[in-house]
């Protein structure tokens, strides 16, 4: 357990806030660090509320997962009010998803199981989010082209996610946090486009982003020199 001086609300509270709000990915431009400027400040309030309770980081991981599924379910309904509700829910899910890691670090309760539990639940949520979003737009408008593009986009998104972890292993890259920022935007933008009644733009943006990242990853791999064994 951390000492009393490290608890939220103590004399060291400023240092605590600064540490948990700090972006995990220093390589991402500041204007793209949605977690740092939106999600983490909100998540810090959750951490402060549950710090002295029996709520564990894994509890928050499961809660984020369930809220995300509820948001995807709302998208599946294909009705304007449901879609807007879905956008709000997935953003709340994204905030809670930040809070689990922040709580684990603040309490010193980080574990390999917790880290992988978060990764597994994130990927499941992302699958239902993208497919639910695409199908919901189809039910709302009857446009087959956007629905098909949404399914292709889902495949591209998970392909670039797979490439990300493969290349990290290949290049022996110890940094982390890149996928967290990508996921933050994935959870944020659908709600924005849904509120603007332009869900199709959400599909187009995610398709373009996934394809661009995948192209960059493939080019980076083939331009690299073979890694020599030590």
Short description:
This protein is mainly α. The chain has 8 helices and no strands.
Please give the structural blueprint:
Layout: H1 13-21, H2 34-50, H3 57-77, H4 80-107, H5 112-141, H6 144-170, H7 178-195, H8 199-223
Helix pairs in contact: 2-4, 3-4, 3-5, 4-5, 4-7, 5-6, 6-8, 7-8
CATH superfamily: CDP-alcohol phosphotransferase transmembrane (TM) domain
Distance between the termini: 39 Å
Give a quick account of the main beta sheet: strands, pairing sense, barrel closure: none
Mean pLDDT: 84
What is the C-level CATH assignment?
Mainly Alpha
- List low-pLDDT spans: 1-16
Shape annotation: flat
SSE series: HHHHHHHH
> What is the number of independent domains?
1
Strand content: under 5%
Q: How many strands in all?
A: 0
Helix content: over 70%
Could you walk me through the main structural features you see in this protein, from its secondary elements to its overall organization?
This protein has 230 residues and is mainly α. The chain has a single domain (4-223), classed as Four Helix Bundle (Hemerythrin (Met), subunit A) (Up-down Bundle). Helix content is 76%, strand content 0%. The chain is built from eight helices and no strands. It has helices spanning 13-21, 34-50, 57-77, 80-107, 112-141, 144-170, 178-195, 199-223. It is flat, with a radius of gyration of 19 Å.
């Amino acid at each position: 357990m951390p000492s009393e001086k490290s608890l939220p609300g103590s004399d060291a509270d400023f240092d605590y806030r600064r540490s948990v709000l700090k972006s995990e990915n220093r390589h991402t431009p500041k204007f793209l660090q949605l977690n740092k400027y939106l999600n983490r400040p909100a998540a810090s309030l959750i951490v402060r509320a549950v710090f002295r309770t029996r709520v564990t980081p894994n509890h928050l991981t499961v809660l984020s997962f369930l809220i995300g599924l509820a948001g995807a379910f709302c998208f599946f309904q294909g009705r304007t009010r449901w879609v807007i509700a879905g956008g709000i829910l997935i953003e709340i899910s994204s905030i809670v998803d930040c809070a689990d890691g922040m709580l684990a670090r603040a309490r010193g309760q980080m574990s390999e199981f917790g880290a992988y539990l978060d990764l597994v639940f994130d990927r499941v949520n992302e699958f239902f989010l993208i497919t639910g979003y695409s199908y919901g737009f189809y039910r709302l408008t009857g446009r087959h082209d956007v629905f098909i593009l949404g399914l292709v986009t889902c495949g591209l998104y998970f392909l670039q996610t797979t490439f990300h972890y493969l290349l990290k292993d290949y290049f022996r890259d110890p940094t982390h946090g890149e996928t967290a920022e990508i996921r933050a935007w994935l959870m944020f933008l659908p709600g924005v486009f849904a509120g603007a009644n332009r869900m199709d733009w959400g599909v187009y943006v995610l398709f373009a982003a996934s394809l661009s990242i995948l192209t960059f990853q493939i080019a980076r791999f083939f331009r690299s020199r073979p890694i020599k064994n030590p």
